[in-house]
Structure formats: C-alpha cells, structure tokens
Amino acid sequence: MRKFSPIILFILILSSCSSVRKHNEQRSSCIPPEELKEDVDYAYAKIKEMHPRLYWYIPKKQLDHKFDSLKQTIDQPLTPLEFYFKLQPVIASIKEGHLSLRIPIKKFTKKELKSLENKKGMFSRFEYYVSGEHLYIIENKDSIENIKPGTEILKINDVPVPVYLKKYKNLISSDGYNTTFQPYFLKDIFFNFYSAEFGFNDTAKIETLYDKKIKTYILKRAEKSKTDFEKDKEQKKKTLERKVNDYVAFNDSYNRTFKFLAPDSSIAYIKVKSFSRTYSEKFYKEAFAKIKNAKAKYLIIDIRNNYGGSLDEINNLYSYLASEPFTLIKRSQVTSKSSPLKTNYFRKSNALNYTFKSLLYPAFLVSQTMSTYKKDSIVYYKMKADRETQPQKDAFHGKVFVLINGGSFSASSIIAAKLKNDKLATLVGEETGGANDGTIAGFYSYQKLPHSKISLPIGLALVQPNISFTNTERGVIPDVTITENIQDILDKKDRQMEWVMKKIVNDKNGK
C-alpha cells in the first residue's frame, strides 16, 4: 500500500485542482432566468421545511410577496454572485441573524494560496468603525502610509463608500427589530463582501478625509519580511496558556482574558470575545478559583463584540454565577423528528474522514433520533443546556456587572437575557444585537441551491433562554444604557467601563 501512496496523492491533487477550476468556472458563468427562479423556489421551500419559527418577525403574506416579487425581477441571466445580491436581501428581511446565504467566493489553488500566505493583508491591516454612511479607520496596525486613526474612507477605487455601505447593509440582519447589530457586524465583514465582489487584488486606491484634508493613497498587498515569517511561526506555537485563553493568531490576541482590576483584588474582570468552548472549562475553573481565593466582591464580565458560540460554554459560565440549580434554556423546538438528520453529516469530509464517519454513521442516526421527542404536537430536541444544572462550588456571589453592545449576539444575548431575568447581574452598555427572547440556531442543515450552487445554512432549532419573555422583538435592553462613539474609541475612552468602576467605588464608600 505504501508504494502507491504518491500516486494516490497525485490523483487527489489533480482532483482538487479540477474541483477548484470547476467551481470558479461555475461562479463566473451566467445562469438562465428560469433556473434562477427555480433556485428561489428551492431556497424558500427548504426554509419553510426546516425553519422552526419562520414568521416570527415577518407575516407569511408579506414574505410570500417578497419571494414572488423577486422572481419577477429576474428577467436575464445572472452569475451566482449577481444572483446572491438579489436573493440575500429577501432572506435578510426574515430578520433572523443566523439565516443567511454564503456569498459565492472564488476558490484558490494551492499555488495561489501559497502566494497569498507570503503576502500581508491589504484591508485587514486596519480596524474600522461604521456610522451611518461613513467608514472610518480607527487603527492602523502597521502604520501603513502613516494613515491616522480617525481617517474617513470616502472612496474605494473611485466608488463612493456610501454606495458600498448601502448595498452591503441590505445583506445583513439581526434578530428582530433592533438596530444595534448591523454597524458592528458590517465593520467586520465589509471587506469580505468587497473582496468577494472584486477579488483579492494586489492594489487598491482609497480617497480619505482627515483633519478636513482629502488625500489619496494606493494600498498594496506587500510581501512579508523575514520578521513577519518569524512572527507567524511564533504565533503558531501552542502553549498551555494559549490553549486555555484561546489564542487567536490572526490578530495576535486572546479570546478569553482574566485579571484583577484593583490592587486589593476586590474587582475581577473576565472578557470573552467568543464562546468557542475550546479549553473553556479549564479557564473558568481556574479563574473562579482565583476569584474565590482573593475574596473578590465584584465581577465584571465583558461580552461586547462577542458574536456567540457554544451553549455548553455559557451554561458552564452561568453555573459559576448561580446560587441555586437552574435551567439555562427552554426546550428547543424543531420542525420534525427528521430535522436533526438533515445536518449534512458528511459535509467537508475528505476520503479519510468520509470512511471514518461512515463507520460511525449508524451511531449518529440513533443518537439524533433519540434526541427528539414529541409532546402536544410539538417536536423538541434535547440539549444539555435545557437540563437542570447545579451551581459550581466556586460560584461567585458578589455583585456582577455585564458589559454588552450591539456586537453581543446569539449565545451572548442568551446569557445576558438570562442574567437580567434572574437579577444576577447589572447589564451596562447598548441593546444587544441578538434577540432577548431567543433565536434560531443550534445546528444547521447546509443546503446548496441546485443551479447557482450557493450554500444556504438553515438553523434547525429554536433556542430560547429560560426566562419570562418580553415579546418586544428587540435585543436585550441594558439596565444602564451607555453608548459609544468614534471619538471615545480614538481617545481610548471606555465610558461603559468607567461607569461600572465609578459605581463600584461608590458602593465601596456606601454611597
């Protein structure tokens, strides 16, 4: 078998190249109107089949009209990308933040990927801020062209930025009718849309405004230096500290942070950028043991700009804040007992993965089937987070403050809503981007539209915090509303944290 492995490898490489070429050819080809209309019908049919609460924020009659109207506008052939920009705004009108088409992007050969790995990013070396029709640079990581933080980008390749923003905003929705999520998500994904639309070019012209002066810059995708490669190599090292704090090499930062904010260790601070679950149990166990040993009286949990993640992680975190047994979420609803079997079990499997998964497939079928049950004509899916959980022995019982904003989405909104309902924390900041009363996620069925080949992930489970619902169709409203603006960011002024620290000082002084 060993002597044939190079041949097998060669065949796999050829197959991979062929797959990339086929994908890119299909992506650039024009699809006849009738086939595109079939894709519209297919997408809507699959959403209706699997989405457990489709008409939560939009009446059926209105959504039917949107899909019908869309088909009437398709009267000429379109590429998959052009079709995406027509269909996604209709799907976004459902107002379910997890429900979104995957933008059809170009695939790269191994040679092209290697070339990109040897170059620095172009737009990704800046941090951005979106306000209305304005796009600002708030951080210039490598001092590129000495562009100052606070610089507004007016045009990209001679096209006014508001044109891009208007187009891309229509592709994004949060859960329900809150308005806080869109600018946070858009600042992170703006250049994903841009690159998908215009490609990974090596140069771009931007027109900027700073201190009332307009300047033009030519951005370049520069070659990495020896120092850059050494830094890349260093960032790939997996130490225990990096594992526990969930190190993210892309931005050279930690996903989870714990520290004390006062010399007497009376104020503990935990920041979580994403509930990734990776080594999270060890992180919380160590953090709350230190909090208990220090006899801290105050805890600040920062979940701003946290788009969510693992229900198991937030269930575990909540167990360190609860004083009695609790149930984090209500029983999750699905549309049918067969829904959990539509999760594309073999998705993204190579030959070896496929073989291994095939052996485990019978167990998967049994497990998923056993996880559903029907009661009062409703089908439920069992999750760990819908069971009663005991508080941890090192659970914190002092005063808890939770920092939230429009970038707090999905699982972040679930735990924020639960903490607020149970009066275990004071929420400070902005309305969350995710809904107070739950969302549609849990796990997904990845559908592929038959002609355009665009991927459509559909959340299969209705996940709701175990609370008294507000029925506002909005995000989690903070107990204390404090918003930020670009000047606060440029001045590195955290007004939300400042309010909490002042509140703690007053509390210590008995005010």
UniProtKB/TrEMBL annotation:
Single GO MF annotation: endopeptidase activity
Domain of life: Bacteria
A single GO BP: proteolysis
Gene3D superfamilies: 2-enoyl-CoA Hydratase, Chain A, domain 1
GO CC terms, sorted: outer membrane-bounded periplasmic space
Tail specific protease domain segment(s): 237-483
SMART domains: TSPc
Pfam families for this protein: Peptidase_S41
PANTHER family found in the cross-reference section: CARBOXYL-TERMINAL-PROCESSING PEPTIDASE 3, CHLOROPLASTIC (PTHR32060:SF22), TAIL-SPECIFIC PROTEASE (PTHR32060)
Name by which UniProt lists this protein: Peptidase S41-like protein
